[in-house]
Write a structure and sequence with these properties.
By secondary structure, this protein is mainly α. It has a domain of 128 residues. The chain contains 16 helices and no strands. Helix 5 runs antiparallel to helix 6.
Length: 298
Amino acid sequence: MSIIQLSPGQLADLTDWDEHTFDAHFDKLRQLTAALSTPEEVLAQARFWWADPDWRVQTLGFDLLAIHDQDGDHLVPALIEAADAVGLVTDPYELRWCAAHALSALNASPQALDPLLRFADDFHRDIRWQVARGVPYFDVYPENAVQVLLRLMRDPDGGVRDWATFSLAYSGGTDSPEIRDAFLERLDDPEGDTAAEAAFGLAKRRDVRVMPVLMRELADPDVGSLYVDAAEEMGDPRLLPLLRRLSSEGWSHEDLAAAIEACAPPAPPPPGVIYTRGEKRPRSHSPRRCRINPPKHR
């Protein structure tokens, strides 16, 4: 497979895009590079574009790897090398955004974590947003990722706070007083789902400080589903009357029944069955859903 050479017109067409033409840009890039059939060919093309002195061409190398995220194991080492060469102050915003976006797209690879975290220091909110959205999922986050996410939970931009809170909230194995206090700070956050995600994070860790918020929110017939999810995680019988009232009023959500079950007192054992001290009665849980949002555009 020969390397794709761009004409001036093709370069202008591929690099002239914004948040309104984001999808069209990547569709054009997919069409242009459709003949690249192996990870080796994709990587050769990306390296060719990265070697170009024009930063606009370099962005295409990152965008190419972003649309081949299924080949992450083969592409991540080269992506890391190229992204590490991007200056957070010296290089143009577009190049920084594309590098962070590619690392975010290949977030299934733990190798991408540290290079992505570096972009949390960028002064532009859209690039920090890529970090908050793209941090790979860990049940127990490394300490450097925890500290970055805690900082992004206090970011001036609401979208950044939203995704950073989401990442830590669903990571049930990552826990500390500092993390819980950070969730507590976000319980009244006005941006998106941030407050509900913070409540979920506290409930998942069975922190009783979230109970007044859950009691307040579940009393609202228009309560958001994340608070019902948090009630399921909390499993506190004090929430049961509120959940049953939602059910009787026709509040419909797939997790409401699971939340009611989780908060219900344990049923007495069947006749002839004796539970020993410390033995848990069986309780089912519905699969946890993950929220998937479209990427924020530059």
